[in-house]
TrEMBL record:
<dbReference type="InterPro" id="IPR010916">
    <property type="entry name" value="TonB_box_CS"/>
</dbReference>
<dbReference type="InterPro" id="IPR013783">
    <property type="entry name" value="Ig-like_fold"/>
</dbReference>
<feature type="compositionally biased region" description="Low complexity">
    <location>
        <begin position="494"/>
        <end position="512"/>
    </location>
</feature>
<feature type="transmembrane region" description="Helical">
    <location>
        <begin position="698"/>
        <end position="718"/>
    </location>
</feature>
<feature type="compositionally biased region" description="Basic and acidic residues">
    <location>
        <begin position="756"/>
        <end position="768"/>
    </location>
</feature>
<protein>
    <submittedName>
        <fullName>DUF6049 family protein</fullName>
    </submittedName>
</protein>
<feature type="region of interest" description="Disordered">
    <location>
        <begin position="729"/>
        <end position="795"/>
    </location>
</feature>
<keyword id="KW-0472">Membrane</keyword>
<feature type="region of interest" description="Disordered">
    <location>
        <begin position="49"/>
        <end position="83"/>
    </location>
</feature>
<feature type="compositionally biased region" description="Polar residues">
    <location>
        <begin position="64"/>
        <end position="83"/>
    </location>
</feature>
<keyword id="KW-1133">Transmembrane helix</keyword>
<dbReference type="Pfam" id="PF19516">
    <property type="entry name" value="DUF6049"/>
</dbReference>
<dbReference type="InterPro" id="IPR046112">
    <property type="entry name" value="DUF6049"/>
</dbReference>
<keyword id="KW-0812">Transmembrane</keyword>
<feature type="compositionally biased region" description="Acidic residues">
    <location>
        <begin position="734"/>
        <end position="744"/>
    </location>
</feature>
<feature type="compositionally biased region" description="Low complexity">
    <location>
        <begin position="49"/>
        <end position="58"/>
    </location>
</feature>
<feature type="region of interest" description="Disordered">
    <location>
        <begin position="491"/>
        <end position="517"/>
    </location>
</feature>
Length: 795
């Protein structure tokens, strides 16, 4: 009965070990009677086995390995394994203990992957536990309860042999009331790399360390001289704050031998935060940013971290090369944005970090390539494309992993990153057990790769673009252990690209049909590139009229780069909102230069002037504009002697200008007039203004009436003249009579009074106001000069 309770994969409990001695004395008839009385369902078929039998599946007890130190042991080290065991079953586990088992040597990389996928399978537990003293006992584990454990064992006790990767299994054995015999109830396997001596030929390993974020800045800037930038959110401040994702990336990467891969947009955005900036609120109102000190500190730490390190600059905004290749090239002008984003990258990184980066490398999403992606990736000047071995697969049946560089023709090199190493840190790394497993798996893959052949090889590790803080921590732990190991040495990406290619490695770029559908479905649609092209066309038309184009070209150009970013994958709605916001804001600026609406104008003469006002609400002046006034009925109303007239326009910022056009009326009635702004190359600018002109021409009948009136006035004047002449003659005659009377005595004493009365009446007529003439026309013809450019807008 004692032996019948021992099952494969476990060691006997202390009680069972005592029963063995008793069983040896009572092995006769009582044993036979016991066998005869066993029910059919009892585990009698286990009699004679020396180890407990493993249960099937994962087992009711979960075992996690939260720490394994050192990750790469050498001679004389003590390996410490710590973790927790959790009873996830419905029955209490009794007489339990945690022990260590060293599994067989794993000679292949696929074998390591297979072991990782079945790391908790209790059915395949076969190796015995090592010495009893290297275990930890738990008399009782109730359901739902977790208990920690920590076991330390000298390396010598592990009986490790030749160099390679060994399985290290941590198992829990115990019994339940339903199965009252010892059995393996839970297990967790991990990997123990073992190469105590320096390798004769070490693998040269390049590890990319990405500093990339999502798009945070908008195209909007303030009207002040500094052009205060506006951010779409405040999430970047959280990423660069102490403990944030990007803060951890910089702090961890500082002491590692890595190649920094940086999106210049991230540096430009943080640099903008060091001065005044605003953050867009939920209601559309902007609030002042307050994280200048955090931005200053982070940039200073980046400068220190990358000093004397290799820095690879991606095109500004990290454009989605695959989306450009598959849908963007069908839209005219899309590739020009990639070229512009590449050109601005060097200046951005160099001005902020004070190091000269390289822009020779293109990095498609997940390293997935096809011929069209290679063509687009190299169109902006890059001659090296970072691919990945799970899409750039080997077709020659090699038994080892070849070096990264592959000449693919046209002077282009595909730098193929190792897929197993590059994807080792994906997933949730917040759990210590998951992180520890990722570190050990990465090291195991690296060592096995190094042992495949004695040839010198260059291996590249290209992890996910935006690792989380926990993923970055796990990457740093793995890389630190690798650099302290004996089989690998660090290498820059440029050196890896120049390494001697393996002649047996494939150099054929995968066809378009091999591109992963899981990646294709998240690409930017064609409509995204059409919107970018439409916005660019509006921007081009707008900038030609500005006196200071840089205030608009730079923020909008960078925003268009961000609109094509890889970071929008999986966020289609956010991407559409961002691109629409850029176009909408540009439309708002364009509309700040416009014609003022006019109501109906009346002309009451054969010729007159019509004023049209241009308003500029921008902070800068506009020039190189032409205002055209067109008559839709030139037979009735001519403008400038023809159907239209044009005049150049220059308006200072925040001002308006009225332009006057000379018109000639040929007939009575209404004439519709259209005012339209044009750029100097003949492109329409803004909306037209249409208004009616009512012509009231002077006719012949009216002229006769006016002429008759003038004749009557002339006759009246002549009559007054003759009357005054006669009066003067009479007055002279009377004066002569007075002279006679002065001698003979007064003959008419009232004569002086009469003369005084006539003189008073004449003076009164002279002082009387003139009668008004015909009303003046609505628009005066005498002034045809344009007004000045300094008229302030009344707003």
């Amino acid at each position: 009965m004692a032996e019948a309770a021992d099952f494969q994969g476990t060691r006997p409990s202390p009680a069972l070990r005592r029963l063995r001695h008793l069983g040896a004395l009572l092995a006769g008839v009582p044993l036979l009677a016991g066998l005869l009385q066993l029910p059919a369902a009892a585990p009698a078929d286990a009699a004679g086995q020396d180890a407990p039998r493993a249960a099937s599946g994962a087992g009711p007890v979960s075992v996690s390995v939260d720490s394994l130190t050192p990750s790469v042991p050498t001679e004389g080290d003590t390996v410490t394994v710590s973790g927790t065991v959790t009873n996830k079953g419905k029955q209490t586990v009794t007489d339990a203990h945690v022990g260590l088992r060293v599994g067989p040597l794993l000679n292949t990389r696929s074998g390591i992957d297979n072991a990782a996928r079945n790391s908790d399978d209790v059915q395949s537990v076969v190796n015995p536990e090592i010495n009893d003293k290297y275990s930890e006992e738990f008399p009782k584990l109730t359901p739902g309860v977790s208990r920690p454990f920590s076991i330390s064992v000298p390396v010598d006790e592990l009986n490790l042999g030749e160099d390679g990767v060994y399985q290290l299994a941590v198992s829990l054995a115990g019994q339940t009331s339903a199965q009252p015999w010892e059995q393996t109830l839970g297990v967790q396997r991990t990997f123990l790399p073992w190469q105590p001596e320096e390798a004769g030929t070490q693998t040269k390993t390049t590890f990319l360390w990405p500093l990339i974020s999502t798009a945070h800045m908008t195209a909007e800037t303030g009207s002040d001289e500094q052009q205060t930038p506006v951010f779409r959110d405040d999430e970047l401040a959280e990423e660069i704050a102490p403990g944030g994702r990007l803060d951890r990336m910089v702090a961890l990467g500082r002491d590692l031998d890595v190649t920094w891969v940086i999106d210049p947009d991230l540096l430009a955005s943080v640099d903008a935060m060091t001065e005044s900036y605003e953050v867009r609120g939920e209601g559309g109102d902007n609030t002042a940013g307050s994280h200048q000190k955090i931005a200053d500190r982070w940039l200073a730490e980046v400068q220190q971290a990358v000093a004397d390190k290799e820095v690879v600059a991606l095109p500004f905004g990290d454009p989605d090369l695959a989306s450009l290749a598959h849908t963007g090239t069908a839209v005219t002008g899309s590739l020009s944005h990639l070229k512009e984003a590449t050109d601005v990258a060097v200046d951005t990184v160099e001005s902020i970090l004070h190091v000269k980066p390289t822009t020779d490398f293109a990095w498609p999403v997940n390293g997935a390539v096809d011929p069209s992606i290679i063509k687009v990736a190299t169109s902006a000047g890059a001659d090296k494309v970072i691919a990945r071995s799970d899409t750039f697969e080997e077709t020659g049946g090699l038994s080892y992993t070849p070096s990264a560089p592959r000449p693919i023709g046209g002077g282009t090199t595909a730098v193929v990153a190792d897929a197993l190493l590059s994807t080792a840190f994906q997933g949730d790394m917040t759990k210590a057990s998951t992180s520890t497993q990722a570190v050990q798996r990465f090291l195991a893959q690296s060592l096995t790769l190094g042992l495949q052949t004695g040839k010198q090889r260059s291996v590249v590790v290209a992890p996910q673009r935006t690792p989380s803080a926990s993923q970055a921590q796990t990457m740093a732990e793995a890389l630190t252990a690798l650099q302290d190991g004996t089989w690998s040495e660090p290498q820059d990406l440029a050196a890896a690209a120049k390494a001697k290619p393996d002649p047996a490695a494939t150099t054929k770029v995968p066809p378009a049909s091999a591109y992963p559908s899981s990646l294709r479905k998240h690409e930017l649609p064609r409509s995204a590139f059409e919107q970018v092209a439409r916005t660019q066309a509006k921007l081009d038309k707008f900038t030609v009229v500005l006196s200071d184009q840089s205030r608009v070209v730079t923020p909008f150009g960078r925003a268009l780069n961000r609109g094509m970013s890889v970071s929008w994958r999986g966020r289609e709605t956010d991407a559409a909102i961002y691109r629409s916001g850029v176009e909408s804001y540009l439309d708002t600026l364009i509309d700040q230069v416009k014609l003022i609406d006019k109501s109906e104008t009346k002309l009451s003469g054969r010729s007159a002037t019509i004023p049209v006002t241009v308003q500029n609400n921008l902070v800068q002046g506009v020039e190189h504009l032409v205002l055209r006034l067109t008559s839709t009925n030139p037979t009735r109303l001519e403008i400038g002697g023809d159907s239209y007239e044009e005049q150049p326009i220059t308006v200072s910022g925040g001002h308006s200008q009225s332009v006057k056009f000379t018109t000639s009326a040929n007939a009575n009635g209404r004439a519709t007039v259209v005012a339209q702004l044009y750029t100097q190359d003949g492109q329409k600018y803004g909306d037209p203004v249409t208004f009616d002109v009512k012509v009231t021409e002077i006719t012949a009948t009216v002229m006769l009436v006016i002429g008759g009136g003038v004749l009557l006035l002339v006759l009246a004047g002549f009559r007054m003249y003759t009357q005054r002449k006669r009066a003067a003659a009479r007055e002279a005659e009377e004066q002569n009579d007075e002279a006679v009377e002065d001698v003979d005595g007064p003959q008419n004493p009232e004569a002086p009074a009469a003369r005084l009365t006539e003189e008073s009446e004449a003076g009164a007529r002279a002082d009387a106001p003139e009668q008004p003439s015909d009303p003046a026309p609505d628009t005066a013809p005498e002034n045809t000069d344009p007004s000045g450019t300094g008229e302030r807008v009344d707003r």
